[in-house]
Design goal:
- About 40% of the residues lie in helices and about 15% in strands.
- It has a 4-stranded antiparallel β-sheet, with helices on both faces.
- About 25% of the residues are buried.
- It has a single domain, classed as 2-Layer Sandwich (Alpha-Beta Plaits).
- It has 5 helices and 4 strands, in the order E-H-E-E-H-E-H-H-H.
Length: about 160
């Protein structure tokens, strides 16, 4: 009986509900480590992760035995509960509905990993909305503005 071989890479992107900028530098690295554990415990390989105050990028070597929606749901639900249990923010924390999942070839992985790891530098030149819409356009994905993430600014009292 023959073996089955596969190789797939996905860049996952999702945002904090209402796009509140409440992922703080103080606990951002702990969040990234926690999500790394979720990814690895589900049989995927984490290549790069980069959290910003209002969204996150995750680049993985993808195990085809789990659907992308199931993995994203597990990441969102588990990390939501983890953040709430630790009371990292005064505001109610939730991830927004929806996400982006973009596939890449092996030859693109190094550049995508650098992109994910250099989010702070990248966002000094481009907003998350500009970045996300540009990615959708690059992949020729039809989208409707009303179904994109809520692109609003955070009230100061939530910081």
């Amino acid at each position: 009986m023959g073996d089955t071989y596969s190789q797939a890479f996905f860049h996952l992107v999702f945002a904090v509900q209402n796009r509140y900028a409440i992922i703080h530098q103080v606990w951002k690295q702990d969040l990234e480590k926690y999500i790394t554990g979720i990814v690895q415990n589900n049989g995927h390989k984490l290549i790069a992760i980069g959290a910003m105050p209002d969204h996150i990028h995750i680049l993985i070597g993808y195990n085809l035995n789990q659907s992308v929606p199931a993995l994203v749901e597990k990441i969102k639900t588990s990390s939501n509960n983890w953040i709430k249990d630790r009371k990292f923010t005064k505001a109610k924390f939730n991830w927004q509905n929806g996400y982006g999942a973009f596939s890449y070839s092996r030859s693109q992985i190094d550049s995508v990993a650098r992109y994910v790891l250099n989010q702070e530098e990248h966002h000094s030149k481009k907003t998350f909305k500009e970045e996300y819409v540009e990615t959708l356009q690059k992949f020729k994905i039809d989208y409707k503005d009303e179904y994109l993430f809520d692109f609003i600014n955070e009230p100061d009292e939530l910081r």
